[in-house]
Predict the structure.
Amino acid sequence: MPVYRDEAVVLRTHKLGEADRIVTLLTRRHGKVRAVAKGVRRTGSKFGARLEPFMVADLQLYEGRSLDVVTQAESLGSYGAEITQDYAAYTAANAMVEAADKLTEAEGSLQQYLLLVGALRSLARAEHGVGLTLDSYLLRALALAGWAPSFQDCARCGKTGDHTAVVVQLGGVVCDDDAPPGTPRIARSTVALLGALLAGDWAFAEAAASVDRNQASGIVAAYTQWHLERGLRSLPHVSRETTTT
């Protein structure tokens, strides 16, 4: 059977038999892969800890009929321990890997892989606020998947301007002419924050007021749930830190 190597981030795991585990991986070059890691639940396993959720590893696998088999694993990013020590980071990471699982298929996407690894590394190192990191990841992952929201021009007609009406079903902000009756309005500062999160402008995002962060998070959650079939089960459980600005 063909043997191959690839870098991968562990999205989720399932027990198999008494000592094995099925791991779902987002790889750098082979897309999403489901593989069996034999014996990893035994105490003496050489690489069991390297195949836990949120971990990044250099793997050697061989192709199986239905599931590939992991034969070697070397750690590249040990993010699991730091993430699981913080409840807010843990819930955010669960939402991230669930989104990655839904957004990627067998053909894969290098950009999706790099985005997820970067987001998990940022969570583990507490580089930015947990809520900001999650919201930025979700917006950028959806954009890479072909659902880029518009937070500047009207998502329906392309008209430029300071639009404050948001319709997630239409793809973001819309002008007054295209806004359905009763469309909610948000502050321009919230629209600006959403644009910063999509662009990865961390200086602007971290300076945002808590009211804008909370409103932006609600819009990101609604946009994500709208575009992903059956939504994200882990998203309602995300613990949002409170920020006083």
